Amino acid sequence: MSDSLRPLEERNNGMNKISDVVYKWMQQQQQFQFDFAFATKLADYMGKERKYAKCREIFNDIINQGRVPNESTFHILTIAYLSSSVQGCLEEACNIYNRMIQLGGYQPRVSLHNSLFRALVSKLGGSSKQYLKQAEFIFHNLVTSGLEVQNDIYAGLLWLHSYQDTIDRERIVELRGEMQRVGVKEEKNVILSIMRAYSKDGDVDEVERAWLQLLKSGCKVPSQACVYQMEVYAKVGQSMRSLEIFRGMQEYVGSTSVAAHHKIIEVMSKTQNVEVTESLMSEFVKSGLKPLVPAFTDLMNMYFNLSLHEKLEATFSNYLEKCGPNRTIYNIYLDSLVKAGNFDKASEIFNLMQSNGTIGINSRSCNTILSGYLLSEDHIEAEKIYDLICKKKYDIQPSLMETLEYVLSLKTKVLKKSVSLKLGTEQREILIGLLLGGLQIESDDERKNHAILFEFNETSSVHYAMKRHIHDQFREWLSTYSKANDENEDIPYQFSSISHSYFGFYADQFFPNGRFVIPKLIHRWLSPRVLAYWYMYGGHRTSMGDILLKLKGGNREDVERIVKALKANSLDCRVKRKGRVFWIGFLGINSSWFWKLTDPYILDDIKHFLRADIQTLEDTVGDEQSLSFENESDSDKNRTDQSD
Fold first, then answer.
1. Between β-strands 539-541 and 450-455, what pairing exists: parallel, antiparallel or unpaired?
2. Checking DSSP bridges between strand 450-455 and strand 440-443, what pairing results, if any?
3. Contact by Cβ (8 Å): 575, 563
């Protein structure tokens, strides 16, 4: 935002705060009488300013008074939720939209129908499939209201249907018939959705019919169409036909895609055709295409199911030479070691996974090593893993329960029902480092419960590696929809903790008035681990190898306390202010001292991005490239410091 617009923004923020304070004051008066018109204006104003939490609070007040909010309030609140990228806001937008129709009896504008629908289908792959019922409801409302149904609505609805676990063939036929009736042509994306749906259902005839339709359309044949052909023939047990289609892709597509390599290796590995699968894998590796991880996963699973443990170990070693650490790959190898009775090596691999933040452990790996310790009758280690499982709140596999109960009974120890939530020392230090780096805390209106909002930059390689590690570190604290399961290893770039009073200390220290401040006692908390996580989350290495720590908020006096604490630990640094952001710079030899201090706590897989005194740089971010520490500050020294 330009400096000329900043006073206007500050004035609007001030008006928001004053209006909210006045409204709360009115509610506390003994003679208070609810003013529907005032509440509506305030709710609409908050919603237009994208203050969806405040708008929702007043919206709820209106309903609690037995009144139905105005159509404008429903509309504005839905849009406010849609404008936010915070996890859970899309679901809330759907909730308000539904109540607008079912409670208010209103007919939303066509723009609201379309905006919500497009938000539902905006996610990649099958992550949108849970929204099918909501999408159908929007489609129904468009039709019954006599509004125009645009082509992308039909396409989006078929796309959602094609990703369902159980394909509703009847509904797909209905939608295609409706498209034909209103004159909507089936374009390439629609045909692909049809192929995807029927390939899942094992309907060869429908897939081939759609394939011919695709060829007749004259469009360039996408490689994904061949993948769906391979899939449907594999479904009906004709894996060699799938192989023929893979070999024939050159004719129709011009090349074999990564997805095609993944699919044919998946197909042939499931048939346990070792020779063909190994040949395809070798071909894929030589092609130079990536990623290789899904193919290695299928190959290793095939070896595991065939008890070819030596081949699996050789493949694991080959994987490590070509790819970065991956938890699924390590879990398969761990399973193999336990199944083969190599318990010492299994223990070594588990410890490596646990110590490497980029890999980490999960319920599967803990249960696997627990079964190994129980089989080898190593009761001491089994008890340690059991305690770890309880701490992480993982489920214990039923097949292990009887043996585990016997082992625990030897020490008159009973199975724990639950473990109270409490942050460990390492978690506390990590949290402080992340908060200094820009992590946010969201508090309820009474400031009794607080949620940690974890957000990572999708364009940063450092953040990509960090998000899994942080997800694992705080797993027991995460809200239900933020937790990844063992089958789905994808960690979102945004997730949040449960709202809990335990985080009150951190909210009071870093966000006492809802805005970031630097705690008075920060000088006591700047441990090497805190600095490392601050650097990983909110820091930067320049092209000259200097290290910068970003601090968005606070004032000069607060920053000087941090600088003083750093210098007390022999870390000399310079401070540069750019707008409302302070940059603490460790230059020259001081960057090496900083690195030496924090190196033990930096994740192994991102050290090459962050190590001091290295001239190359992968991740570059904005204005910090042009920062110069020759002057004390870009801002006027006499300017009054304001927290961000």
1. unpaired
2. antiparallel
3. yes
pLDDT number for residue 514: 80
With a CB cutoff of 8 Å and minimum separation 6, the contacts of 192 are 214, 222, 224, 225, 228
Of the given ranges (19-28, 307-316, 468-477), which has the lowest mean pLDDT?
A: 19-28
Is a pLDDT exceeding 70 seen at residue 623?
A: no
Give me the phi and psi of 497, to 5 degrees please.
-80, 170
User: Comparing 167 with 622, which gets the higher pLDDT?
Assistant: 167
d(CA 464, CA 458): 7
Looking at residue 490, the DSSP 8-state letter turns out to be: P
Helix%, strand%, coil% for the chain, nearest 5: 60, 5, 35
398-409 and 379-392 helices, crossing angle to 10°:
120
What residues form DSSP beta bridges with 600? none
Angle of CA points 332, 337, 339, to nearest 5° = 90
Q: pLDDT tens for residues 20-34?
A: 666 666 656 666 678
Token pair in block for residue 65: 């008074």
Can you read off the two tokens belonging to residue 210?
A: 């759609």
| Cα gap 493→514, rounded to integer Å | 23
Q: In whole angstroms, what is the distance from residue 202 CA to residue 220 CA?
A: 25
* Token output for 230: 């391979």
Q: What is the mean pLDDT of residues 55-60?
A: 92
Beta bridge partners of 539: 549
Q: Give me 395's structure tokens.
A: 């489920």
Q: What is the pLDDT of residue 195?
A: 97
For residue 390, what pLDDT band results from cuts at 50, 70 and 90?
Answer: confident
Q: Which residue do the tokens 């909110």 mark?
A: 538
| Residue 531, CB-side half-sphere exposure with 13 Å CA sphere | 25
- CA-to-CA distance for 301 and 268, rounded, in angstroms? 12
What single string gives the DSSP state of each residue in 342-356?
A: -HHHHHHHHHHHHH-
The residues near 415 (Cβ < 8 Å, ≥ 6 apart) are 401, 404, 405, 408
Give residue 22's pLDDT.
61
With a cut of 50, say whether residue 1 has pLDDT above it: no
Q: Does residue 291 have a cis peptide bond before it, meaning omega lies within 30 degrees of 0?
A: yes
User: Per the confidence metrics, is the pTM higher than 0.90?
Assistant: no
| Among 172, 174, 236, CA closest to 199 | 236
Mode of pairing for the β-strands spanning 494-496 and 450-455? antiparallel
Q: What is the pLDDT of residue 34?
A: 80
Using the structure block, give the residue that is written with the tokens 């280690």: 381
Please provide the average confidence, as pLDDT, over all residues in the chain.
Answer: 87
Is 475 within 8 Å of 392 (Cβ atoms)? Answer: yes
| Whether residue 111 has pLDDT greater than 50 | yes
**Residue written as tokens 């639950």?**
418
Confidence category of residue 492, pLDDT binned at 50, 70, 90? confident
Q: State the Cα–Cα distance between residues 443 and 91, nearest whole angstrom.
A: 20
Residue 334: Cβ-neighbour burial (10 angstroms; 0-12, 13-18, 19+): buried
**How far is residue 99 CA from its own chain's centroid?**
29
pLDDT, tens digit (0-9, with 9 covering 90-100), for 429-461: 999 999 999 999 988 777 788 999 999 988 888
CA dist., res. 395 & res. 318, Å (int):
32
The reported pLDDT for the residue numbered 580 is 79
Exposure string for 370-405, b = 16+ CB within 10 A, e = fewer: bbbbbebebbebbbebbeebbeeebebeeebeeebe
pLDDT at 484: 64
**Angle between helices 363-375 and 398-409 in degrees, nearest 10:** 50
- The pLDDT assigned to 254 comes to 82
